[in-house]
């Protein structure tokens, strides 16, 4: 005897509605999530299928090794995850170059308030006074709130990541490499930039690392070369910048990666980017209307 099945009416049982109805309902739920939850650049890019070499291949970039002779400890020895290491190098490089600590750490401070930890975050911020081990520990604990701001408080889960001696050495050395990098490729004209006026219902949040006179830079502390997600992310930043209210992006002629862990630079003239890829990025990926 066949089991009895029921149409969906709020009770248990199999949902036998037509496929078109189910697909429409799924699309509606997806649209509601998109409208009510942050959609960061990185989240949007993860939804895109790319060929093995990427839509914007790394082979188009010029590779420039830098010359720090002081090596780092292996990444496997570090006691903080890669995302926090990257944020530390990014934010503390800004501090080293004169940005006030509160300004550099404004994203995790906001995230802490969103999850009811604002007072604790302020206590941590007050201990980020220099580049000592104690300041590094406080900074790493504070950086854990960054995800609550960027992804939404509902996705935040507390971690307690404290750098040991090897991790502290690596982090501070990567900040030193970053300062040396800007001595050669700077000066910085804008750090922690946003894309006000360039966000859409497909990408509602996202911010970049550094702008120099003619180059949009993204910092990565991965042990590996930039991957297709990274190159597409950099392209999206450039296009969103050009659609934003900020005139600084009009001067961008190159896109670049700097990796202080590998101590290397990757550079691409924007004139080398296929116009068809630019159009697809604008209209399909980001969601700008066609003229």
Essential attributes:
single chain, 291 residues, alpha+beta, 2 domains, 11 helices, 43% helix, globular, disordered N terminus
Would you write up a description of this structure?
- By secondary structure, this protein is of the alpha+beta class.
- It folds into two domains: 40-71 and 180-291, no CATH class; 80-163, no CATH class.
- It contains eleven helices and six strands.
- It has helices spanning 19-36, 41-46, 82-96, 101-104, 106-114, 118-126, 133-143, 146-150, 165-185, 228-242, 275-286, and strands spanning 62-65, 190-191, 210-211, 215-219, 254-259, 264-269.
- It has a six-stranded mixed sheet.
- β5 (254-259) and β6 form a beta hairpin.
- α3 packs across α7, α5 packs antiparallel against α6 and α10 (228-242) packs across α11.
- The longest helix has 21 residues, at 165-185.
- It starts with 18 loop residues before the first helix and ends in a 5-residue tail after the last helix.
- Residues 1-12 have low confidence and may be disordered.
Q: Enumerate the strands of the largest sheet in spatial order, edge to edge or round the barrel.
A: 1-6-5-4-3-2
Biggest beta sheet attributes: 6 strands, mixed
Shape descriptor reads globular
Helix content: 40-55%
- Could you spell the SSE succession in H and E letters? HHEHHHHHHHEEEHEEH
Tell me the number of helical segments per DSSP (H or I, 4 or more residues long).
11
Q: How many discrete structural domains?
A: 2
Strand pairing plus helix content: what structural class?
Answer: alpha+beta
What is the terminal-to-terminal distance?
Answer: 60 Å
């Amino acid at each position: 005897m066949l089991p009895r099945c029921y149409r969906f009416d709020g009770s248990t049982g199999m949902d036998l509605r037509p496929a078109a109805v189910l697909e429409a309902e799924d699309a509606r739920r997806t649209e509601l999530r998109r409208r009510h939850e942050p959609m960061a650049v990185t989240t949007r890019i993860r939804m895109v299928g790319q060929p093995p070499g990427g839509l914007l291949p790394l082979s188009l970039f010029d590779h420039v090794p830098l010359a720090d002779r002081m090596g780092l400890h292996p990444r496997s020895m570090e006691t903080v995850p890669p995302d926090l290491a990257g944020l530390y190098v990014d934010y503390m490089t800004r501090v080293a170059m004169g940005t006030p600590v509160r300004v550099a750490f404004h994203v995790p401070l906001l995230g802490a308030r969103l999850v009811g930890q604002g007072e604790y975050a302020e206590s941590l911020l007050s201990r980020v006074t220099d580049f000592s081990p104690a300041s590094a520990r406080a900074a790493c604990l504070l950086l854990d709130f960054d995800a609550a701001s960027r992804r939404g408080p509902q996705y935040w889960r507390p971690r307690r990541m404290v750098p040991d001696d090897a991790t502290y050495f690596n982090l501070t050395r990567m900040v030193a490499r970053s300062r040396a990098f800007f001595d050669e490729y700077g000066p910085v004209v804008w750090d922690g930039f946003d894309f006000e006026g360039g966000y859409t219902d497909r990408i509602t949040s996202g911010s970049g690392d550094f702008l120099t006179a003619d180059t949009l830079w993204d910092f990565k502390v991965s042990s590996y070369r930039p991957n297709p997600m990274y190159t597409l992310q950099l392209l999206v930043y450039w296009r969103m910048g050009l659609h934003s209210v900020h005139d600084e992006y009009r001067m961008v002629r190159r896109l670049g990666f700097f990796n202080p862990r590998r101590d290397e630079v990757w550079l691409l003239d924007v004139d080398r980017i296929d116009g068809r890829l630019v159009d697809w990025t604008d209209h399909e990926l980001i969601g700008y209307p066609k003229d």
